[in-house]
Amino acid sequence: MRIEIVEGDITGRPVDAVVNAANSSLLGGGGVDGAIHRAAGPELLAACRELRATTLEDGLPVGAAVATPGFGLPARWVIHTVGPNRHAGQTNPALLASCFTESLRVAEGLGVRSLAFPAVGAGVYGWDARQVAQVAFDAVRSYAARSAEGVELVEFVLFGPETVAVFRDVLEGAA
């Protein structure tokens, strides 16, 4: 599995699936979540409402992942995951790691070969970008070691040169 770091807008990435740093309601929000909902169009919100009305009546749990079509995105799929909110006392790195491994598991089940992640948990959920990068890379590498086939490319699509620099530093330090 190849890992790449890209600075830019995840909604325009030419990958099979993008990961949405969603909230548990799945009904949109700010940041990456809002951008993905806007770019995908109203069909994404309708699909998320259907999930809430059927299989996820209580919302998507922290660390879990679920897929919807990508609708207006270049990506065929959106894989929604809910990061732990440090401000709400959710400080266990295993919950954060689960966001990455569960997203990869869902992606593999869909036959996804290329997948773009944002910095799940960084930003409004209060996780330090360096810790997110370390947890993310460890989770992706561990998943790749257990999975003989499936996702070939994982992109970390990040907003802003500071976050890109942190992720590159962590990636190069682990290489």
Write the layout of secondary structure elements.
Elements lengths: L1 E6 L9 E6 L8 H10 L1 H12 L11 E5 L7 E6 L10 H18 L3 E4 L11 H18 L6 E6 L2 H14 L1
Parallel strand pairs: 1-6, 2-4, 2-5, 5-6
Antiparallel strand pairs: 3-4
Distance between the termini: 14 Å
Helix coverage percent = 40-55%
CATH homologous superfamily classification: Leucine Aminopeptidase, subunit E, domain 1
Please state the structural category: alpha/beta
Please report which band the strand proportion falls in: under 5%, 5-15%, 15-25%, 25-35%, 35-45% or over 45%.
15-25%
Task: Tell me what the structure shows.
This protein is of the alpha/beta class and 175 residues long. Strands 1-6-5-2-4-3 form a six-stranded mixed β-sheet, sandwiched between helices. The longest helix is centred in the middle third of the chain and has 18 residues. The relative contact order is 0.21.
Key traits:
single chain; 175 residues; alpha/beta; Leucine Aminopeptidase, subunit E, domain 1; six-stranded mixed beta sheet; 5 helices; 6 strands
